[in-house]
Design a protein that fits this description.
Elements (H helix, E strand, L loop, with lengths): L2 H20 L4 H9 L1 H26 L17 H18 L29 H14 L5 H28 L1 H9 L7 H4 L7 H4 L1 H22 L7
Helix pairs in contact: 1-3, 1-6, 2-3, 4-5, 4-10, 5-6, 6-7
């Protein structure tokens, strides 16, 4: 194994320790008790930026020709996966940051709203994490090398673990409010709708959010090649 690949694995381990080993375990409560919520959030944010920087830096090094290690040869159909998945992933992301979301950091107060599960929250109560998860899954297909698999798997694990972890934290802080919210929502996209516990209301999502998501998709599609050096064109 090349040094660049080892460095990437260490960066991935650091990221997972920060987001799962600290933020996703009882250790978080112990640190908050000692530092206070604001100090903990500040330290966590700094560590997250450091972890992200390390992931990007080590990933770039591990994809250089001297360290590149292919695991499978990408077939043409694999490039269609991110091309088709990313518009939905971006819609979930846009919806998560443009409407009240009780699962967001510091947004527990929205559990007390008359109808807290609106818009994309009817699809899933973790739209932002699912946007990251879908991005990671979709990009695994056309990127069949060791470095890309480590990067996308790291983000995917973080996103999937974060969903039940956030649920546990919200349920502990507001059992009654969370129980009502969870009864009308689901972790799995469309789970609550298919089970009859909720319904899709397109007007709550809004055409403007769809437009923003599609515009972001077009921009990312056009800039993918010039900025990242890899074309996103599947045809």
């Amino acid at each position: 194994m090349e040094p660049a690949q080892i460095h990437l694995l260490l960066a991935a381990a650091f990221w997972l320790v920060v987001h799962i080993g600290i933020a996703g375990t009882p250790l978080r409560g112990q640190l908050v008790a000692r530092l206070g919520e604001k100090a903990f959030q500040g330290a966590f944010t700094v560590l997250s930026f450091i972890g992200l920087g390390l992931l990007i830096w080590t990933y770039r090094n591990a994809t250089q020709p001297e360290a590149f290690y292919g695991l499978w040869v990408a077939e043409r159909w694999m490039f269609w996966v991110p091309f088709l998945v990313m518009p939905f992933a971006l819609l979930l992301f846009v919806g998560s940051v443009t409407a009240p979301n009780p699962t967001s950091v510091g947004a527990e107060r929205f559990l007390k709203a008359a109808e807290p599960a609106r818009g994309v929250l009817r699809i899933t109560r973790h739209p932002m994490l699912w946007s990251f998860a879908l991005w990671a899954i979709a990009h695994m297909f056309p990127n069949g090398d060791f470095a890309s698999l480590v990067l996308f798997a790291t983000i995917l694990i973080t996103a999937l673990y974060g969903m039940p972890s956030i649920d546990r934290k919200r349920a502990a802080r507001d059992p009654q409010g969370w129980a009502a919210f969870a009864a009308k929502t689901s972790i799995l996209p469309f789970g609550a709708i298919l089970s009859g516990r909720n319904r899709l209301v397109p007007s709550e999502i809004g055409l403007w959010r769809v437009g923003v998501a599609l515009a972001a998709w077009v921009v990312l599609f056009l800039l993918h090649g010039p900025v990242l050096g890899v074309s996103a064109i599947p045809f």
